[in-house]
Design brief:
4 helices; Beta Polymerase, domain 2; single chain; alpha+beta
C-alpha cells in the first residue's frame, strides 16, 4: 500500500462534509493519537436513522471522498446488515451506526481516554 499524499486534516474535512450533507446525527471525532496501541489516529462516529440512511451515509462518504481527494477506504465492513458500517481509511476509521447499535457498543466509553470533539449541526 502506498502512502497517501492527502493529509489527515483534508481527509477528515472531506468525510465530515459528506456526513453533514446527508444529515447524519450525533457526529463525533475521537482523537486517538495520545493512546498507546491504537489501530488508527481518529474515529469519526455518526448515527443514521435507518438501514437505508446508514447505507446512504456510508455510500456518500465513499463517493464524495473519492471525488474530492481521490481517497478510497482500504476496507469496508457491515454494508450487508446496515446496523454498523465501518469505513477504514487507515489513519481514520469512520463508524456509521444505527442509534440502538451505537448505544449498545458505546465506542465513546470504550475509548474514554480519547479527546472527543462533537460536531454541532444546525437544526
Amino acid at each position: 500500500m502506498t502512502k497517501s499524499k492527502v493529509s489527515v486534516d483534508e481527509l477528515i474535512t472531506s468525510i465530515l462534509k459528506a456526513i453533514d450533507e446527508i444529515k447524519a446525527d450525533d457526529i463525533q471525532i475521537l482523537d486517538l493519537r495520545e493512546i498507546e496501541n491504537t489501530v488508527c489516529d481518529y474515529f469519526v462516529i455518526c448515527t443514521g436513522t435507518s438501514n437505508t440512511h446508514v447505507n446512504a451515509i456510508a455510500g456518500i462518504v465513499q463517493k464524495q471522498v473519492s471525488k474530492a481527494i481521490q481517497e478510497k477506504p482500504w476496507h469496508v465492513e457491515g454494508e450487508s446488515n446496515s446496523e454498523w458500517v465501518l469505513l477504514d481509511y487507515v489513519n481514520i476509521v469512520v463508524h456509521v451506526f444505527q442509534k440502538h447499535t451505537r448505544e449498545y457498543y458505546d465506542i465513546e466509553s470504550l475509548w474514554g481516554d480519547a479527546k472527543i470533539t462533537s460536531i454541532s449541526q444546525p437544526n
